[in-house]
Amino acid sequence: SQKIEQNSEALNIQEGKTATLTCNYTNYSPAYLQWYRQDPGRGPVFLLLIRENEKEKRKERLKVTFDTTLKQSLFHITASQPADSATYLCALNNAGNMLTFGGGTRLMVKP
Amino acid sequence: DTAVSQTPKYLVTQMGNDKSIKCEQNLGHDTMYWYKQDSKKFLKIMFSYNNKELIINETVPNRFSPKSPDKAHLNLHINSLELGDSAVYFCASSQDVTGQDYGYTFGSGTRLTVV
Fold it and tell me: Which residues does chain B have within 8 Å of residue A43's beta carbon, measured at their own beta carbons?
């Protein structure tokens, strides 16, 4: 069956460190993968998209990698801040271009 | 200006009632969606419309009926509400059916509680 797996346990890190979140998938062949941020009581907000032929994408303090052999994407936040605390969701498209989401990982950045 | 707006934000209703959730986007996007986020926080696609035409209808009970009067609006009507329908419902839109480049823009959600 198709699965998108993110660590359901919260990730706690100290301010200033790099946060690394993992997204693994099985039985998908996505053309691209997206990352979103969701704050409590709000809808997800689009952060980054990476295509299957791209190894890495950067935007300010964010970096995403995409390994189609390992079927994995890593999401990094460098110099993390308490304001980065949120749930981060990965999403990828299936054959019908429908975006399917993982369950998200909650990040807590402590001052 | 709110890009994707949903109303109401909260909806508490009794089992068996019929209710509607409205969604409007002012981004000029062609494609709109309804997602359901359950208590475990999983976001599941329910419906997708492109230029008022239904393109995706996941396995959703036929008590749920989307309606798109124009490409800027996608409303969700639910008949005979059940306890299991309690969740947060998100409307979203994208430039086109692929959602590439700029991803999806989500509304702030409607928390539906069926008692």
Answer: 4, 90, 92, 106-109
